[in-house]
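Lab notebook, bench 4. Still working through the backlog of constructs that have no structural model yet. Next entry is a single chain of 394 residues. Request: give me the structure tokens for it.
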Amino acid sequence: MPISIKILFTIFINNWDNFYTFHFQLFTMRHEDLFYVLALLKVEGVGDIVAKRLLSHCSDPAQIFKSKASLLNSIDGIGTVLIKNLKDKSIFLKAEAELRFIEKNQIAVSYFLDENYPDRLKHCIDGPVLLFSSGNIQLKNRKAISIVGTRQISSYGMNFCKNLIADLAPLDPIIVSGFAYGVDIIAHQSALEHNLQTVGIVAHGLNQVYPKIHKKYVHRIEENGGFMTEFWSTSNPEKENFVRRNRIVAGLSEATIVIESADKGGSIITANLANDYNRDVFAVPGRVGDYYSQGCNTLIKTQKANLLTSAADLIFQLNWDIETKAKPIQKQLFVELNSEEQKIYDFLIARGKEMLDIIALECDFPIFRISSILLNMELKGVIRPLPGKLFEAI
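Model written out:
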């Protein structure tokens, strides 16, 4: 680990009448880059997309502040007002303060051009330039799903969420959510119960916990997972921040699952963002007329989401049953099957390969029930799924 050396760091900007000096802890050159990126993000009129344009045109972040106005003005979307804002000296004071917070609290920082930046989020044009995180988050080459929904979760939604995560647990996915009331916290709790990594995407800086009542879960989540945000330590959980953070929830995962939702709200925004990112979206159907089922039913009706009745639906759609699993399932010499499983097993032995719908019809099981039974049988190693929703006995 590099030794911390306190040095005097001087920032000189071309065409300035004077220069400003700051003291801060500098570990490697990357910290210098981080300092300038932080400063850039505090420039009025600079968002993630504009910042990426500037960073892609300059050899390093510091160069942005040293470049001539004529060069900057040639970059698409960069005008005279923004160039003037780049000369605001106060941005460096803000960057220095945030850098001190990052170092003091050992906050991990992911830069959008670095290897440690989440792979899936790199493909999102509006992904954050910087991500701040705490805990032990390991996203590389891992299955990940986002689970979102209403803060007013019903017993139906709660049970579905718990059962879904329990059924998915053997595949060891990462569970991503927003650490809010309702569906979010149930998803995090269920992940913890099954020793799954879980990541909370928060709408504020990592110097606080919101809602405060969830503080009791922070330590356990950070042991196997953690928290991630684009917001600085000076950011509070403002309403607009929750809308912005939804793109991270959608962008980090292979699929977004909406458990319960009204016709409008953060969950629907997240689902639409996931669609924009060309990610799979799933929605749990509810009773017609139920307020917190309207959003899910509309997503399904308008073909913006796949119908989700069990873990098997998700696994089939994402082809997790075809890809290599984290822990290969081996058939035991003596497997105990219940009466339902035995009936299906005997049917497949007699018929060979068969489609899910035909199995349900011939064995007299509803589709939502057959999916769950087949998943359990697969985990026991007595059947295997094939492309086209076919199954065969092993």
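Notes after review: The two ends are 51 Å apart (CA to CA). The first strand starts at residue 5 and ends at 11. Flag for follow-up if needed.
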